Amino acid sequence: MAWKIAIDAMGGDKGPAPLIQGALLAAAESGSEIILVGDEHLLAAEMKIHTNGGLPFGIRHAPQVIEMQESPAAAFRKKKAASIRVAVEMVQADEADAVISAGHTGATLMAATLILKTLPGLDRAAIATLLPTMQGHTILIDIGANVDCKPTHLYQFGIMGSAYATHVLQRERPRVGMLSIGEEDNKGNETTKEAFQLLRKSSLNFVGNVEAKAVYRGCADVIVCDGFIGNIALKISESFAEMTESFLKKAFMRDARSRLGYLLLKPSLSHLKHQMDYAEYGGAPLLGVNGTCIIAHGASSAKAIKNAIGLAERLLTHHVNTHIQEDLAANGDIQELNPKKVSLWRHIRGSIPFSRERDDLEPEEPA
Amino acid sequence: MAWKIAIDAMGGDKGPAPLIQGALLAAAESGSEIILVGDEHLLAAEMKIHTNGGLPFGIRHAPQVIEMQESPAAAFRKKKAASIRVAVEMVQADEADAVISAGHTGATLMAATLILKTLPGLDRAAIATLLPTMQGHTILIDIGANVDCKPTHLYQFGIMGSAYATHVLQRERPRVGMLSIGEEDNKGNETTKEAFQLLRKSSLNFVGNVEAKAVYRGCADVIVCDGFIGNIALKISESFAEMTESFLKKAFMRDARSRLGYLLLKPSLSHLKHQMDYAEYGGAPLLGVNGTCIIAHGASSAKAIKNAIGLAERLLTHHVNTHIQEDLAANGDIQELNPKKVSLWRHIRGSIPFSRERDDLEPEEPA
Fold first, then answer.
1. Do A268 and B275 touch (CB under 8 A)?
2. Residues near A256 by Cβ (< 8 Å), separated by ≥ 6?
3. Could you tell me where the beta strands, DSSP code E, fall in chain A?
4. DSSP assignment, residue A183?
5. What confidence score (pLDDT) does residue A278 get?
6. Exposed/middle/buried for A56, CB within 10 Å: 0-12, 13-18, 19+?
């Protein structure tokens, strides 16, 4: 099915070129309508280089850019015509079905959560990334949208990650695990231990705690964690990969014998690099907002952007947001199990006869 | 200088053999006196295999063992003659200068903190490990002794890590960083942001936040984090290494050409493996206890045990515990800067004339 995709064409470390090239590739494949959001003069000029009278991309003028060093909150308030803000507003106004951003992640998060809001019943949006493992891919959620999480947030990340795994990755009853410091049920910090209880009582296929040493073995389809920890888990893996690559390069160039060995191994190693390439899956969805938003890597290649657009299309085609809401509703009573949240209200309500059905009276947890 | 080192000879995944072999290697090198703690009949029999009338090791009888699946708290209470407990008690009674354990980490932690207690002025002990980086090694502290930390704990980990780096790794004015999700001063979660302020005001060479993506570049000598996060950072790196090794092996065996390339590269790769081998540094000190305690890997080889003993000797020779206390004293007013802790007391005290010097009146922070 074809969709309307808004691209923040001013975001990305490499300027608009790879964004436009990626959009051309995606549109040629899926027939989706692309709207480039940014400075119209600059984009029109750039388009002339890439298309020779070809695909009719829309351009939406948005003359301001949020720079990487700007504070997202201040920039969001001040720059009403920032490309990311205009692109997200198009989704909110139903002028686009999804937004793709390779720009300032904080600004994208801010625009998406403030303009689109979270889906009814969800407290927080979360970024879900795909990690390569020894057995396909694992979803890690959250990787940085939330730095101080409550147990209910982690439980909600489980709901979102499970819907993503089921409907986009086509995993049946995906295994949902909690990132922790030991496999045993009682291992973890205060937050994960409480979230463990919520997830265990849910309808999800919760497989318990997943130790970090087992993450890349692919022992779960979805791994839930707070955004501070998820960000560190992801980025330290990238750091380790960088070091390994640098050490391997040195080993390959150590002497004539090693250099010859490396030459022979080169095709095999390229194949391996392809297997572990982030560009293959393009971007990370910001799940939980009332709309579809993909956060792509700042250094995205045209291929990565094409795949990010493909990911947005799959999220839309499979109605992932609808499934998240269905799963939340099916587990409606779970969040009330959070002992700190319900204690007082439960006690009061428990003493009122016939009040059990009055769930609409339940006070909301303070944000 | 020669020391008396107690080894929990019943701990370790491979039985007492590598522990005894490692102890023999260390004693031959440094002349330290080794006391094997465990079942005396079993150890005497094992000793006969390894020494032919050679080094006179002491044996301290401790017939009980804390098994890996036991709860550390329950086992510690019940098993008064457990080898780890007896070994730690020897340090407490000055019958040994240090204890080495490759057994149950939780039980070692429990025995060390309950029997030796923390150094005066410290709230918590923390495990400091060495990470290989592109520029030598970095100390990561804490990697699992504390799962829910307060800002003052992270500050204290900085003091301990810095003393370790200065006196054992011989780094002048070691750079102390805080593991976080961005380099900017205001990035982090609630705990790290408060700890950031304490560290900045301290006498340490605090270099600010260190992003996870920069950890293996070696941009700091000491990286501070809570034990939940440190454990995940360390273990997910191990997991990534495991996956990379498995993928590389497949790439090396992919076809005849690759296999030949691998054969040529083998010496170079062995050299690389040696560079990244944990056995080279043997173990991780549990810093902050009133004594010297090294936690070695469960699967430690004889070489790893020898190096763990060497590490204990260096901690003792360089009086690291004394330096930690000196650095704490030199930063005596820092912990009072924790706003949540001092607010009320400061307000009261500030209103009493001439009470400024009465620091002995400062109430202790509840544990």
1. no
2. none
3. 4-8, 33-38, 58-61, 98-101, 126-133, 136-141, 175-180, 205-211, 222-224, 283-287, 292-296
4. S
5. 67
6. exposed
Q: Which of A194, A63, A216 is nearest to A137 (CA)?
A: A216
d(CA A101, CA A276): 22
Looking at the partner chain, which of B147, B216, B262 has a beta carbon nearest the beta carbon of A243?
B216
| Three-state SS at A33 | strand
| Strand pairing report for B283-287 and B126-133 | antiparallel
Chain B closest CA to A139's CA: distance in Å? 15
The answer to whether A281 faces chain B, any CB pair under 8 Å, is: no
Query: Which burial class, exposed, middle or buried, applies to A312 when counting CB atoms under 10 A from its CB (0-12, 13-18, 19+)?
Result: buried
Q: Is any Cβ of chain B less than 8 angstroms from the Cβ of A213?
A: yes
Q: Work out whether the CA dihedral B332, B338, B339, B345 comes out positive or negative.
A: negative
CB pairs under 8 A between A and B: 179
For chain B, positions 85-104, list CB contacts with chain A under 8 A.
none
* Domains in chain A: ranges and CATH: 1-122+281-320 (3.40.718.10), 343-367 (no CATH)
pTM for the structure as a whole: 0.88
pLDDT mean by block of 10 residues, chain B; 367 residues: 91 90 90 93 87 73 91 91 96 97 94 96 95 93 94 97 97 97 92 96 97 95 97 94 90 90 88 73 92 93 94 97 96 68 43 36 36
CA nearest neighbour of B272 among B248, B297, B307, B302: B248
| Contact (Cβ atoms closer than 8 angstroms) between residue A317 and residue A295 | no
Residue-wise pLDDT for A345-359, tens only, equals: 444 443 443 333 333
Q: Return the closest-CA partner of residue A192 out of A180, A201, A202.
A: A180
Tell me the chain A residues in contact with residue B237 when contact means C-beta distances shorter than 8 Å.
236-237, 240
Q: Chain B contact for A248, CB < 8 A?
A: yes
Please tell me if residue A263 touches chain B, with a CB cutoff of 8 Å.
Answer: yes
Sequence-separated (6 or more) residues with CB below 8 Å from residue A245 = none
DSSP-assigned letters across all residues of B41-59: HHHHHHHHHH-SS----EE
B74 at A interface, C-beta within 8 A: no
